[in-house]
Amino acid sequence: MKIAEIGNVIEFGNGLQGIVEKVNENSVIVNLTYMENFNSLEIEEKTVVNHKRYKILAAANNN
User: Fold this and answer.
1) Nearest alpha carbon to residue 50 among 33, 31, 32, 27
2) Is the pTM of this model over 0.70?
3) Are residues 12 and 56 in contact, defined by beta-carbon separation less than 8 angstroms?
4) Where are the domains of the chain?
5) What is the sign of the dihedral through the CA atoms of 40, 42, 46 and 49?
6) Calpha distance 44→38 (Å, rounded)
7) pLDDT at position 1, please?
8) 50: burial class by Cβ within 10 Å (0-12, 13-18, 19+)?
9) Distance of alpha carbon 61 from alpha carbon 32, whole angstroms
10) Quick one: pLDDT at residue 62?
11) Tens digits of pLDDT across the chain (63 residues)
12) How far is the C-alpha of 29 from the C-alpha of 63, rounded, in Å?
């Protein structure tokens, strides 16, 4: 299992996507405002996702 890093874009749940803001021992904190349709979803801005429950879509842009 590959663990996400800060800045990675991940997908989880029913197609939700977000940017990893913090990596914990068993989970990551994800900012969901990355999604274009965030405002229409009426969900919280951030959530916690277990490492077993997401897949990494894009690596962090470490420019």
Assistant:
1) 27
2) yes
3) no
4) 9-58
5) negative
6) 9
7) 78
8) exposed
9) 17
10) 63
11) 799 999 999 999 999 999 999 999 999 999 999 999 999 999 999 999 999 999 999 998 765
12) 22
Q: Which two tokens stand for residue 49?
A: 């996702």
Q: What is the DSSP string of the chain?
A: -PPP-TT-EEEETTTEEEEEEEE-SSEEEEEGGGSTTHHHHT--SEEEEEGGGEEEEE-----
Token pair for 28: 């990551």
Q: 40: which 2 tokens? A: 């229409």
Q: Which amino acid is at 12?
A: F
- Tell me, what's the pLDDT at 48? 98
